[in-house]
Automatic annotation (TrEMBL):
Domain of life assignment: Bacteria
Positions of the NADP-dependent oxidoreductase domain: 15-314
Listed PANTHER family: HYPERKINETIC, ISOFORM M
Transmembrane is among the record's keywords: no
Pfam families: Aldo_ket_red
Lineage: Bacteria, Bacillati, Actinomycetota, Actinomycetes, Propionibacteriales
Keywords: NADP, Oxidoreductase
Family: Belongs to the shaker potassium channel beta subunit family.
InterPro entries reported in the protein's UniProt record: AKR, K_chnl_volt-dep_bsu_KCNAB-rel, NAD(P)_OxRdtase_dom_sf, NADP_OxRdtase_dom
Entry GO MF terms: oxidoreductase activity
Name of the protein in question: Aldo/keto reductase
Keyword Oxidoreductase: yes
Length: 336
């Protein structure tokens, strides 16, 4: 397992990061989740990403239990704040000082740790002054409850202003966590160039496009039993945008490219996002330990310019590149 520096900091994280978004506390049993975490640790993964909203705080609890007994100094634990938790009361979401301060305390308790390595604003809160948000996040760092701060799905302008305020307050904003894959490249036009200027790295989610880039969904074929596309608890909704025959057919055209490299299609997808120098890590989840074993093989893979060109040719115009999609996908008001 290779490790990369996160932003303009001295912190290194594993380039394959374990994420428990749609699995822990919801899709898989706790025993299976524990087994997946143990496998990740055996494979050299040291970085674990979660959020308070995942399974309405249950995912943090499962991860905290699974990591119990591990040497804390050898791990990098990341969590997030913004989306509604608990009973969804009028202050149970957003990036107000109240919600941030209450949420970090809850996350630390559930994760069974005194601090997180990176505390991330899970979305931009249009109803809270950015100065208030950044002041609260800076205080979390100064209280020793987080070492660094990051953001998720912020626009380039929001990242720039957040970074400016963080710097003024003496704390480091070092990471951005956007969706990024062969099919979804909206950060390439504005977010990545801005982050490169500021010394901010990407920790990308959904590098396999919710499993579509694994090639297991074929045009016109029945959905595989137990796959994310059949999950009525959230997985099917997230994957729906990719489930049309044009996209699925193009994805099948990636098979010979992966085969020539001795990779699975999922490994090719993860290696593709890791090829970008501004990407520090790819977040990969698992519903069974074997998935981690396979996906970790993408670590250290080098893709040539010829391979990258073949991938672009195969996918053609189904790739989404519009940088405006980041703003378009933002909540336009608090979701509680």
């Amino acid at each position: 397992m290779k490790h990369r520096y996160l932003g303009n900091s001295g912190l290194k994280i594993s380039e394959i990061t374990y994420g428990n978004w749609l699995t822990h506390g919801s899709q898989v049993e706790n025993k299976v989740a524990d087994a997946c975490v143990r496998e990740a640790l055996e494979l050299g993964i040291t970085t674990f990403d979660t959020a308070d909203v995942y399974a309405n705080t249950a995912a943090e609890k499962v991860l905290g239990k699974a990591l119990k007994g591990q040497r804390r100094e050898g791990l990098e634990i990341l969590t997030k704040v913004y989306w509604p938790t608990g009973p969804r009361g009028h202050n149970d979401c957003g990036l107000s000082r109240k919600h941030i301060m209450e949420s970090i305390n809850g996350s630390l308790k559930r994760l069974r740790t005194d601090y997180v390595d990176v505390y991330q604003a899970h979305r931009y809160d249009v109803e809270t002054p950015l100065w208030e948000t950044m002041t609260a996040l800076a205080d979390v760092v100064k209280q020793g409850k987080a070492l660094y701060i990051g953001v998720s799905e912020w626009t380039a302008d929001q990242i720039r202003e957040g970074h400016r305020l963080a710097t003024e307050m003496g704390v480091q904003l070092i990471s951005s966590q956007p969706q990024y894959s062969m099919l979804w490249r909206v950060i390439e036009g504005e977010v990545i160039p801005t982050c490169e200027q500021l010394g901010v790295s990407q920790i990308v989610w959904s590098p396999i496009a919710q499993g579509v880039l694994s090639g297991k969904y074929a045009p016109g074929a029945p959905l595989p039993e137990g796959s994310r596309a059949t999950d009525k608890h959230g997985g099917a909704g997230m994957i729906a945008r990719w489930m049309n025959d044009d996209i699925l057919g193009r994805v099948q055209d990636l098979k010979p490219i992966a085969s020539d490299l001795g990779l699975t299609m999922a490994q090719l997808a993860v290696a593709w996002v890791l090829h970008h120098p501004n990407v520090a890590a790819a977040i990969v989840g698992a519903s069974r330990p074997g998935q981690m074993t396979e996906n970790v093989k993408a670590s250290g893979v080098t893709l040539t310019d010829d391979v990258l060109a073949r991938i672009d040719e195969a996918l053609g115009d189904v790739v989404v590149r519009d940088p405006g999609k980041t703003y378009e996908g933002m909540p336009k008001g608090r979701p509680c």
